[in-house]
Amino acid sequence: MMWKSDGTDKQSSSTSFHELLNSYALAAGAAGVSLLALAEPSAAEIIYTRTHHVIGNGGSYKLDFNHDGVTDLVIQNKYSHGCTFDTCWTWESLRARPAGSNEVVYNVYGAVDMKQGMRIGAADAFHEETERMVICGYLSRPFGSWINVNDRYLGVKFKIKGQTHYGWARLNVQVQLPLTITATLTGYAYETVANKAIVAGETKGTDVLTIGQGPSLGRLALGRK
To answer: What range defines the domain where residue 44 resides?
Structure first.
């Protein structure tokens, strides 16, 4: 359902997006779901989804940026236990696992906890493997960039019909020793123009379309719930 653009044909992109918005509105109306309108909806380039989902110990969340029913990223809160010879240990880890060839912004500490206003694009270092956000255990201090943070952003690069798009997921993360990590996903967004950078935390403006909680409009437009 999501429109495709190479960023060179502004009129075509605007028309395609307007057609998409109309299909969303029709699907939402049929299902009794309200759509937050923009002053100039045809100019929208960023799709922002508001949500509130707690990912507790042992939980996970499958994130679908463009609401097409395909998982783009999984946020895992995993409890693990291991032994080496006569020593055993237990730990809890919050991790970002990209689906397929998708990638997340990372550094030597794992997934980067980006701040509001930072740009996410081709200039960033990305990695397609599972990246640690924070880990804690009985015998060690918490490690990672996401220790007791609020409103931090996970930068993501993912594919839509073979084209690269950039997005972010906003999370609060709390660590309680020895073995409790609680992550709360409060929103996510992506840039509909292929290969165009996105600003972490950008949720307002005539180029932003906001989708509220409830059934995703993309899945509604596809006849799914």
So the answer is: 10-221
